Amino acid sequence: MQRPALSLLAPLSLAVALALTGCEQKPAEPPAAAAPAAPAAAPETAAAPAAPVAIPEGDCGDQSALPAEERVANTPRWSTASEQDNFGFEVFRSDSENGEFVKLTASPILGAGTTDESHKYSYRDDTIDPCKEYWYYVESISTAGVREKFTPTFKAPAKRVPKSTP
User: Fold this and answer.
1) What is the pLDDT of residue 3?
2) What CATH class has 19-38+64-160?
3) For the segment 124-160, what is each residue's pLDDT rounded down to a tens digit?
4) Domain spans in the chain, listed from the N-terminal domain onward
5) 52-67, pLDDT tens digit by residue?
6) Pairing outcome for strands 161-162 and 57-58
7) With 0-12 CB in 10 A as exposed, 13-18 as middle and 19+ as buried, what is 51?
8) φ/ψ bin of 161: left (φ > 0), alpha (ψ from -120 to 50), beta (otherwise)
């Protein structure tokens, strides 16, 4: 018997927590830099506003000449409380919030199928220009091949400002 197609957002128990971090040279980011939580996620407690974080100066542009472990990166992270018929996820990026999004994942990040256990996922994007801001979202893929936007679109701020010239 064939089951009716269900929205993946409900079966994946939207306990989605999103965060975006840089790699080795990351500045401390206040919680406000994280993407908004999905409706079913636990709300964060209100805290005093954090002092602005100074973005370090550095080189801008293409990092492909650097070894992967030395590149500055954005790392979207998300989690599920449970999953049902989840094949996996793909990560998309754009240079603007409403711009054209490009799939970054060469192959899907494998999901946990059907489980009542929570799982954490992430994708390291080291193809960025550290001086630019980017927008991301994650798409889920069911075992039946149904694709749905899993996260809201969220912003990753620039990790550096261009070096000052003397």
Assistant:
1) 39
2) mainly beta
3) 999 999 999 999 999 999 999 999 999 999 999 999 9
4) 19-38+64-160
5) 667 788 889 999 999 9
6) parallel
7) exposed
8) beta
